[in-house]
Amino acid sequence: MGVVEETRRVLQDFPAPELREIRGALSSIDRRLESMDKRLDSQDKRLDTIEDANRARHEGIIQRLEQIQQSFAFDKRISNLEDDKRRSA
To answer: Positive or negative, the Cα torsion across 71, 74, 75, 80?
Structure first.
């Protein structure tokens, strides 16, 4: 048996099985990471939907508060009260 054949046999007997085992473990890890990526993408989409809904609700609340503020016209009423107070003093 020559040196080349002996070296080839040693490589096939020891590192090759270990490399196959490592390759299998890496493939398993890769599949799990892909699965987790898909779940995270799904969660991101759900959170985006919730965020959009909350943003719309927030804008609606702000608009309603502005309408209420305008309907009460606090600034104008305060100015009128101040003017009446100055006139009566």
So the answer is: positive
Provide the pLDDT for residue 1. 63
Task: Tell me if residue 2 falls in helix, strand or coil.
Answer: coil
Q: How many CA atoms lie within 13 A of 10 on its CB side?
A: 7
Query: Residues with Cβ < 8 Å from 9, sequence gap 6 or more?
Result: 1
At position 38, the amino acid (one-letter code) is K
3-state secondary structure of 60: helix
Task: Give the other-Cβ count within 10 Å of 1's Cβ.
Answer: 7
pTM, 2 dp: 0.54
CA-closest candidate to residue 78, choices 89, 67, 86: 86
